[in-house]
Amino acid sequence: MKEKKEKTRLLDETGRRLLQEMKPLRGWIFLSAFLCLLLIGCAIAIPELLGSLVDRLYEWSRTKTFDLSQSLLPGLLLLFLVYVLRAAFTYGNAFMLQNIISRYFCAGLRIKLSEKLCRLPVSFMDKTPAGDVIDRMMDDVSDMAGSIHSIVEILLKGFLQMVVIACILVATDWRMAIPVILLSPLSVFLSARIASSGEKYWDKHFELGGDLTSLAEEAYTNFATTKAFRREEELQKKYDDLSREQQKSGIIAYFLSSIVQPAIALVNAMAYIAVAVLGGWLIIHRGVPIGTVVTVILFARQFSAPLESIAFGLGYIQHIKASARRVFSLLDLPEEQDPAGYLEKEVQGSIRMSHVDFSYDPEKPLIRDLCMDVKPGRKVAIVGPTGAGKTTIVNLLMRFYDIQSGQILIDGQDVSEISRAENRRLFGMVLQDTWLFKGTVAENVAYGSPGASREDIERACACAYCDSFIRRLPQGYDTMISEDSTAVSAGQKQLLTIARALLANRPLLILDEATSNVDTRTELLIQKAMDHLMGGRTCFVIAHRLSTIVDADLILVLRDGQIAEQGTHQSLLEQKGFYYELFQSQYAI
What we know:
- By secondary structure, this protein is of the alpha/beta class.
- It folds into two domains: 11-331, ABC transporter type 1, transmembrane domain (ABC transporter transmembrane region fold); 351-587, P-loop containing nucleotide triphosphate hydrolases (Rossmann fold).
- The protein has helices at residues 2-21, 26-63, 68-119, 122-127, 130-197, 199-221, 223-228, 232-258, 260-285, 290-331, 390-397, 420-424, 441-445, 454-463, 467-471, 490-504, 520-533, 569-575, 578-587; strands spanning 351-358, 367-374, 379-383, 405-410, 413-414, 427-430, 439-440, 480-481, 508-512, 538-542, 554-559, 562-567.
- The strands form three sheets. The protein has a six-stranded mixed β-sheet with strand order 6-9-10-3-11-12, sandwiched between helices.
- Helix 6 (199-221) packs across helix 10.
- The protein starts with a helix and ends with a helix.
């Protein structure tokens, strides 16, 4: 019972949030409401005009004392004008809702989500499938835009129309108005009950939709790997299973939403029949004019139409709320706390880690009491077995993650006191996993230095030994490439990312397996270029191939999140400790 109350409270909160998101559109919503009132006026005028025409026709059939065509023509023309106006108001309202309000609403929400993602920690994207985020930004936001149509076009217009028509029915003939008005609460009750029962199925339907998008995104991103290991059938089966599960929840959700309207139509048909029977009795026994009965019957029909629309709207709102909860849950995630501080002086490049503790999972400690002191301009290599914490140190230096305890200092200043943007502008990075965006070669190299000249770009590429292969491309530096481009090989992509880091010319440099995708000859050339270009810069090199770091000023050997050994290559070999074992395992043969 408590859970049910909590769920109801959550639904109310979601509804309030939806209305809050619509605040910037209130002017357009008021205009739409005004158009709805005009439409209601047209809806009221039509039965009145038809009733008067029927009375005029009935009077002519009894007396035949006047020209029928002359008598009916003004009324018919006025009725035609009202129908034209109703069509124009309907089109104008729909056009405004679709092209102004909904698009503005969607764009605003997607901008908010995009800005929110920029403020979320890197750990969020590490734990959340990209497909799920895309699904929330695209499909869920589009569904939420439908809330404007439902609230304005269906609910607001429907309730206004019902109130106005109820007053007119009572004024026209209160006796025939009674069955219509009395059956209305039953319709609303059925709508609310049936609509609310389908909400949990909508939640599951959209959650599985996010899983499907994530699976599809992974499948296409790793298409070659899937083909190489012949896992197409297994992947297809997994996708089919998720699709069937989503289909089941979707069938139930759509069924519960769809039976609302027929159920309401049944109740409204009962009221319609009651009005027709009562109207016939009143004509025979009370002498009520036929035109009055026709008018009431037409109004009764118009009174039932918004009830069916409201029933549909209530069912659709459950659909919308399921999407809204997914969007709001993303918007409500805690953001990174980022100080506004900056470095007080020009960076020299000294790095100190003092008694640093960190773990991705609190129950599984990784970095424990890590201490190191790196002087400016030194080349520091970090080696160790897989899982020892090498890449984690990079994440901590870049502040992709924050330490649990201890200090990281740059030139003696605690990095927790400066902004992340200020911290990251100090580092150039080349990771093992290359990343290129859709653009020219020159634009990709200049990614970290947007104002770089073509001469600077070509000079950086020459130092990274990629100038020659770039010039052999169809359009040279203006050749269009992307992450999945086949115009350049994996090794050439790595060279481009190295050129990107060289061009950025940051005082601190991080190379995480930066030469893993190049051949041995190119690797040696890059090492020479790096040694020349990194003069006076502090550089951290993470490497598995120990031959690439033999000339490092300092080698830190990590083991189980702690520095097991440190020193130069020669001194560590002479110790014949853990580093010696790693080196022998690679080169003893």
